[in-house]
Structure formats: C-alpha cells, structure tokens
Amino acid sequence: MAALIEAAREPDYPAEIALVVSNVPGAGGLARAEAEGIATATVDHRAFGRDREAFERAVQAVLDAHAIDIVCLAGFMRILTPWFVAQWEGRMINIHPALLPAYKGLDTHARALADGATEHGATVHFVTPGMDEGETILQEAVPVLPGDTAESLARRVLEVEHRIYPQALRMIATDYTLL
Q1: Mean pLDDT throughout 144-172?
Q2: 26, 88, 109, 127: which could form a disulfide with 153 (CB 3.0–4.6 Å)?
C-alpha cells in the first residue's frame, strides 16, 4: 500500500489512491492512509460471523459509496467469494510473494528455500475465484542466495513487490481509462 501511495504522488501517475479499506480495526495501513489525507474505512469481518458474502456486500457498499474503479489488494489475507470477485473482474489486482504459479498461498519464502529453488520473486496478478490463479500482469525474480533465510529472501522480494505493484497499477489504470 505504501508503495502505491508513493507512486500516486507523481503528477503523471494515472491513478489516485482514493480509499483504503481494512477488515481489521486499527490496522497500520489505515493510520498511514489517514496521515496522507486518504479516505479510510473499516469493515470488520468478525461482525459478520461466517457469512463471507454479507461481509463482502458491506465492503462493496463502501467501494460504491466512494466510486472506486480499481481494487488493489495489499495485505488482505482473506479468500474472496466468487460473488465479490465477479463484481471486480478485470479491475482487482493482488501482489503475491512468489513467481506464480509456484508457491500459491502462505509461507512462500520458506517453501522456496525448502525446495532448493534457485530463484524466487513476486507476481502481480488479476484476482479470480481461485487462490493466486489469476492472469499474471507482472513478475520479477530475485536469486536465492547461499545462506538465505526466509527473512532475508523476504526482504529482497519485498523490494521487488514495491517496484512492480505500482507499475502494474499504472498499466491497469492506463488501460482502464482507455475503455
């Protein structure tokens, strides 16, 4: 999120970060957004119990109220229902700390190291109902170095994430404005 906010400060950047929504009250990203003068909202998923679609309908209402065009997931650790994904088809993107289709899900760095991978990286992709299965927009690899730990590898991958997520949003926002 911070990388997207930084990129959007540039006068020629084709997207505005208009809203930050969290499902976790008090999330650090909310304070950062507020400090930048960006509107924020919290829709606490716990208030909806196991009714995922009711939670997502509440999120959708917030997005509609703010006239949001593109959704960028950042640290949103919930699998979305097909209903919600369908509302944003081709307009919702996510960043994943692996070179998809390898290492979908969690603990990607430790899994890459355990497998003896020689490279790892990050992927920006469209969100689809399947976890980490959407079409790739951008990827960038980093080498796995001798002596790497999950933490050291994660730091290098995070640098890539901060670079390619704003690039991918630029691509999507530019194409979207041409529709």
Answers
A1: 98
A2: 109
